[in-house]
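Quarterly update, task 2.4: pyridoxal-5'-phosphate-bound model.
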Amino acid sequence: MKYISTRGRTPAQSFEEVLLTGLAPDGGLFVPESVPKVDRETMLSWKNLGYAELAFEIIRLYTGDSIADEDLRTIVDETYAVFSDPEIAPLHQLGEQEYVLELFHGPTLAFKDFALQLLGRLLDYFLARRQKHVAILGATSGDTGSAAMEGCRHCEFVDMYILYPHNRVSEVQRRQMTTIKGSNVNSLAVEGNFDDCQTIVKKAFSDQGFLPEGYQLVAVNSINFSRIMAQIVYYYFAALKFVDNNEAVSFSVPTGNFGDIYAGYLAKQMGLPIDRLIIATNKNDILHRFMSRNQYNLEQLEASLSPSMDIMVSSNFERYLFDLFDQDAQRVEAFVTGLNQDVQQVSEQEWERAKAVFDSCRVDDETTCETIRDVYNQYNYLLDPHTATGVKAARECRGGSNNPIICLATAHPAKFSEAIEKAGLATPALPDHLADLMQREEHFTVLPSSLDAVKSFIQDSLKASD
Ligand SMILES: *Cc1c(COP(=O)(O)O)cnc(C)c1O
């Protein structure tokens, strides 16, 4: 299995290279040269596998000969052993043909654990083999930071620096980062906003000369293909429960950076019987504008009650465009970079092709709260605000179809109390393993919003750890 860049100027790479870099050197994103197909018979033989066993079968199709089967099996088993629910990703029924797939039973209570717990272990495996150290640098406005730190805090060959906007993340989110034990993880509170953090990270990646000899930076946001790969598994895990009745299922996905739903798109390409993929957005609705009007343009970013979906431009959408444009890398680049000047559109046929797979719905804060309340009153089940946008979108997009719709429950409601309280409900307690979060000791460093300050912090810290 080889990976190519959506910008077309990077030679094909192995899985190991893709994992260890993240972004392609030409500025593009890595995608599989061709998506592995799984025939129906093989798929049916997976029906009764446990989550980790299924993950092994799917992931090995993407890691190719980068990693031996027995090693991969161990890594995958260890990864999903840290989840608190024996099913790992339990499916919960709400109404008729309406389900939620609970993806919040990992250490940090959001679906990002599925990929980042695996990524940390894969990194350590490859780096130990190479006897090489790397530094992870990332910016977070919420869930990615803690999930990445939890995933990598045991990694012997990884030092980690996570930037977040000082005083601008929720207390639970901040404490999930700043209370993590691990001498290799560093929470850096930058005196600026999330965009400032991201700009610093991007600049540091494009000029890595400040790192000590032999070090390189690794990106762990969802541009790293290994994260997408891990997320394909739960689409299979859920849809396999319905294959007996020959029913194609639809998925409704609370969407920000388009990583999670792109994994669903790959599952469909692999042969999983998926009917529709529903893109749920909040008021930051660039993807909904594209799907409903064929207009892809920038608008002001607004803070919402579902902060992990507050994204102006979804970086993984580029991966889908590469496919939609039949791997024409020049068109991808023109479309993506042209966004800064003009409204972008695709041809009528391309738009039809996109609409044959995806549906979309924009759900504002008020409707999000209404949905949380309605579902609680109907089914005594509490949704987090991100998941609520997905449930609402599923209801809006059902149309005449009577197929099962599975809504991805991307976070635990205890993480996002503001929306729950606005819905007039009581915030549930944090699960046992985080029950004392508010009493734990915090560790973080406040830095000015400057590239140089971040660079020197990393230099000093890497020297100290040598
Ligand atoms: C990251 C996140 C999302 C958005 O996922 P993308 O892969 O960026 O589309 C949705 N909900 C929650 C809770 C998240 O943490």
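Highlight for this quarter: Residues 110, 112, 143, 222, 254-260, 308-309, 386, 410-411 surround pyridoxal-5'-phosphate (CB under 6 Å).
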